[in-house]
Amino acid sequence: MSRIRLLPEIVASQVAAGEVVERPASVVKELIENSVDAGARKIDILIRRGGISLVRVIDDGCGMDRDDALLSLERHATSKIRSAADLHAISTLGFRGEALPSIASVSRFRLTTREADAVAGTEIIVNGGKIDIVRDGGEAPGTQVEVRSLFYNLPARRKFLRSENTESRNIEHQLHLQAIGHPQIAFAFVRDDRLVFQLPPAANLHDRIRDLHGNELLERLLPLTGAGLDKIDISGLIGQAGVSRQTRAQQLVFVNGRAVESPVVTAGLREGYHTALMRGQFPVTFLFLNLDPASVDVNVHPAKREVRFRDPTAVREAVVNSIRRALEGGRGDWREKFRAPNVSQPSAPPIEPETRPIEVQPAFAQQIEMPPRVAPSGFEGPRKLPDTAPAEEKIDKEIPQQFQIIGVLNKLYVLMENADGLVLVDQHAAHERILFEELRRRMEEQGVPSQKLLLPQTFDLSPRDAEWVERNMSILQKMGIGIEGFGPNTFKIDSLPAFLKTSDPVSFMQRVVDDLKSASNSSSALRLGEEMIAKTVCRHAVKANDPLRYLEVEKLIQDLLGCDLPYCCPHGRPTMIQISLAELEKKFGRRSAIQT
Asked: Which residues of 205-242 are buried (b: 16+ CB within 10 A; e: fewer)?
């Protein structure tokens, strides 16, 4: 007797629905994508009981005639593709032809649709995958889909749903994704007969983010100027250095208008920010990648959340370049905040004039000459470095003073005045950034001094990692790592960077290989040592309770403003905080600007 049998059509649809329809938010996503593909300019969404009782999506798209409406409920019926060749260049959000029949098979489903020039529309009612009613409808042009009693015929699946509030939040998150991905479309969301938000069509992404997240977040975002690579256009907004979240909830990525999750892009974001974020934090991004549809495969997962890139390395490089250029480009705007006050003021008296300059005793002074504790150039301290700043930075440093130093709070926070209000500077974090960039530059120019191990150690690698190490042996040696082959897939270490403190060189080398393999091609080979540099400069930077003279504080601020990333220390903590006059007036209950 034959054991293999064809599944009934309804059962097959319910199996397919398990991949496409995971929860009410999946229903909303699929229906909105259909509306976007239909050219809708306005989409209304209504839910009840977290979408379990009702999901209704109404659009003003092109609509369908009766034949197309009936075909849309058949599995693998779609207007998006015609042949297998079309799968290699998908430019629409939907293409599988599975969403509507899958949704209809696990709910009480109603579809009404009408074309703009049609006298009457079509209404179709489906219960659990069986078409019950087909008749004329009198709805407005466009399409309206109602999904009631989701999973009513699959009680085992329904009990796995979360609480109504959780499912509602998932739907709202999905709507935010769609609204940000398509700012030109108006969205309205009603939850349990209460209007949650109503978004008009936006002229650009800035307006849509302002409508959804407020002006406070928008002011802390930097624009991406499309500085990608050939055939990869990158745009959007990213958070300034130090603007981060503890989760990836606001790390939004869109590929050709589709919200996706991509390890390739995530790695590019992490590398682009690098020392501009604290460990364990994630950037706030609204990142849009537009590239040839033929170079990205969206036919990876039924839910279409994942994509594959034909050239993932090029995509990662484009993301890294865009993020770095945006952060560096924001330096000019950031520095502009510290322009001089509107009224001329006399020079501030020296801070603690009896205090002697601070001296530094670097632990590895014989290997690398550490910069002086306050200024890497031009300061009469215990050690002076040659002025090697680029011409552009030299010109910048000749600009008249951009701030007015008021004093030092608690021997740690430098208080300054600028045209916008009060500025607080963490002297330790600021000096860390100055020393970090100076020492990193020296390492890139001169290499890393190494220290011989008392006992050389050997370790084994997988064949792929061993092949990578053999190809990059010179890079590792320039980083101060003495490494050489010691047999098949075996290597010997006899020296490590002089300032590295580790009791397990083998584990360190495993981390080295993993970190360097994940770095982009444009990254400096010495960038791996930046974590060690950051720990080193932390020990030698100005500490809390270290008293500084006025000229030392002034030079500290000037050198900080000349750094590549002056906003934060190498660990991602902010170096400066601006408290605006408006915020101060609010605290004191004043209405006007400055009253006399």
From this structure: bbebbbbbbeeebbeebbebeebbbeebbbbbbbbbbb
